[in-house]
What we know:
- This protein is mainly α.
- 89% of the residues lie in helices and 0% in strands.
- It folds into 2 domains: 1-47; 51-108.
- This is MYO5B protein.
Amino acid sequence: PFLRLLEAQLQDQRREHEEEVEALKNQVDAMKEEMEKQQQAFLQTLQLSPEAQVEFGLQQEITRLTNENLDLKELLEKLEKNEKKLKKQLKIYMKKVQDFEASQAMVPAERRRHERTMQVAVQRKEKDFQGMLEYYKEDEPLLIRNLIT
């Protein structure tokens, strides 16, 4: 059983290594192709007149900048989409906060005094026990608000 486990682990590692080597070979091949294209372009450029070399270089730079610009445009679109999503979430959370504050405003003044005394008692209990807290279910929003503030 132990030897089979080790053998299985070794086979997994070998497979991962072979996949990694294959990926690296593909990457090297792609780089070789790109280098050959660049060498051909360079040799063609050397055969051109100086004015044509400058024009070719400018054309290459324009192509590179255009591609970079398209990439940046795509990134900007993604960021704008994310911004809209975050703004929508913020509106939802702001609405929840407003609803919560409105529900707290409806609590009678007498209940608020009771909650303040409960808050003092809770603070004393925390100092004494520094752990579990007992509270009424209806006092939960107040406790959450006090924890946040």
